[in-house]
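How a chain folds remains the central question behind the approach discussed here. This step matters because it turns folding into a mapping between discrete strings. The sequence in question and its structure tokens are set out directly beneath this paragraph.
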Amino acid sequence: MDVDRYMEAQRVSGFLVLKDGFVVLERYGLCRTVNDKWDSQSVTKSVTSILVGAAIQDGYIKSLDSLVTDYVHELKGSAYDGVTIRHLLTMTSGVKWNEDWNDPNSDACVELFSGGFVDGVDPTVAYMRGVSRADQAGAKFVYKTAETNLAGVLLSNAIDRSLSEYLSEKLWQPYGMENDAFWRVNSAGHEFGGLGICMSLRDYARIGQFMLEGGMAGDRQVLPPGWVADATNVRVTFEPESEEAESGLAGYGYSWWVLKNGYAALGHAGQAIFVYPQDRVVVAINSVWPEAQIEDNRKKRGAFVEALRAEAVAQQP
């Protein structure tokens, strides 16, 4: 299958390959152009993780082992007592959760579409303080979009400004992003930490390159030294028969998926940033996969991205 056939079959709106920071291939489909934005879905989680690292570097957050309730006081006395920021970023808080987006009564759907402030409390916080505990904190990985939404609220409280402002200050401006971006907000006007950043394809790729360069923006250390290695190392190991392992994922870091030879930010319906540090390669890709074809398309994307990586490595300097 050549590139054109793959893009048509997989409903790809664009992909871009960087090698050593230079574009080696860039293509668009579905009438998209170089400046058009695309919803990142859960790729946003990895961006929120970057901002948590920046807040630690800036001294707004003490450490990943700080308690969630130290920054979100309304959660005191809830299932989040004793839960750390590290637990949020690794999806190991131990709270009971249902992430089934096809069930309108699931925790994920109810939390996302909940109303505005509840007695002056952000709707994400209001919902999460009512969940129960299923496991000991740190014991089990359960994917929970709401916990990255909660990490966003925590982060906003710590920095005392919006996530959009902080993202602009720490990454968009100093790293020279090409286009403005948009970030969806909840009914209370707060950004969703777990989804909703809309940006151009080249700026997707720049996020990967920023990570590849160790969290530096020019001569500015945006992330703590060693943060990228820590965030993209295996913090959660998947069982061999798990859905994640069968998809070729080696583990989960701080809101980054760990690959056998790199790491990735992954979002629903085919949004992704793949980073291969040893090869100095970044692949950004956006798609719109039909719900029924997601599992099959994920496997086909893996083969496609691996072919792009191999070809980029084979290119002469």
